[in-house]
Specification:
Layout (H helix, E strand, L loop, with lengths): L1 H106 L1
Amino acid sequence: MEKQSSIASESKVRKIIFNELTLCIAFISLVSGFIFWVTNPQTDMQLQIVRLESQVETNQTVTVALEKIKNNDLVEFQLKMDQIEDRQIEILQSLAAMNQQLTNLCNK
C-alpha cells in the first residue's frame, strides 16, 4: 500500500512537473509569437527604408555623374566653338589681306 501511494504521489509529481513545463513552453511560444508579430513588420519597414535610401543615394550619384558629363561636354563644346571662331577670324584676315593685294595689283 505504501508502495502504491508512493507510486501515486510520484505520478502526481510527474504530472505537475509535466504540466508546469508545458505551461512554460506555451508561455515562451506565445511570447515568441508576439515578438515576431510585432518585430516582423518593423523589420520589413526597415528593409524598405534601407532600399529607398539606397535608391535615393544611387539617383544622387547618377545625377552628379550626369552633371559632370554635361559640364565637361559644355566645356568641350565651348572650346571647339572658340577654335572655329579663331579659324573664321584667320580666314577673314587672310581674305582681307588677299583683297588688299588684289586692290594693290589693280591700282598699279
